[in-house]
Amino acid sequence: MGLLDMIGPVMVGPSSSHTAGACRLALLARHLLGEKPKRVEFGLHGSFAKTGKGHGTHLALAAGVLGLTPDDERLKESLSLAEREGVEVVFKEVELGDVHPNTVRMVLEGEKERLVVMGSSLGGGLVRVFDVDGFEVRITGSAPTLVIKNVDTPGVVARVARILADDEVNIAYLTVSRKKRGGEAMMSIEVDRPLSEVPLRYLEHLSYILWVRQIPPVMG
Predict the structure, then answer these.
(1) Digit-coded pLDDT (tens) for 26-61
(2) pLDDT of 71-119, one tens digit each?
(3) Distance CA 16, CA 126 (A)
(4) Which helix (H) or strand (E) is 6 found in, with range?
(5) What is the span of the domain harbouring residue 184?
(6) 177 and 125 in one domain?
(7) Where would one find the signal peptide in this protein (predicted)?
(8) What mean pLDDT comes out for the span 8-35?
(9) To the nearest 10°, the Cα dihedral for 95, 75, 83, 17?
């Protein structure tokens, strides 16, 4: 355990869970979309819905989706900044079932993509994105992470692992999820360092790969 684990993250307050964590979740969602969003709908569950405004959750979520970090002073003005940048931000209270009380469902729409991302703020600024478009994932923001949407066909996981190994990238944690056999699937791969540009572009152009996102760490 380090010092920051005890005193919390460097951030614009007031809450590591409701402010820093919320900002990081939205920042991860922006990276997953892969482009600047035009519209974002935040569905606030549990404690996020009940006490979010008082803890700055709305401001933090808007800041994250604009690409800001929890220690950015502009966080306090994020809703005005979103309006100036032409990003529509909508908040709703939702019931998401048996999930962590600090959970948000984010529906992001860009020029090319639409993505539904669900994640929880776990306390002390720690976060976990656990669902992307209905696929189970594990994205903590603590290390570089590759998220790959692909056709569910034999050998894909092994081929991706081979590409990473050839670039001397070590896999720390891997999840694979599919909705039905032979349909679409998704991998989330936490790695020791980012994949280099050439193998990343090679991976993106494989016929059975639908899209790839290389997510940088957001825990700072």
Answers:
(1) 999 999 999 999 999 999 998 888 876 666 899 999
(2) 999 999 999 999 999 999 999 999 999 999 999 999 999 999 999 999 9
(3) 8
(4) helix 3-7
(5) 143-213
(6) no
(7) none
(8) 79
(9) 0
Tell me, what's the pLDDT at 51?
A: 76
Please give the structure tokens belonging to residue 216.
């940088």
How deeply is 21 buried, as exposed, middle or buried, from its count of CB atoms within 10 A (0-12, 13-18, 19+)? buried
Please indicate, yes or no, if residue 7 is contained in any of the structural domains.
no
Shared domain check, 160 and 121: no
Residue 172 C-beta-side C-alpha neighbours within 13 Å: 14
Into how many domains does the chain fold? 2
Q: How far apart are the first and last CA of the chain?
A: 15
Instruction: Identify the CATH number of the domain in which residue 207 sits.
Output: 3.30.70.260
Q: How many CB atoms lie within 10 A of CB 193?
A: 11
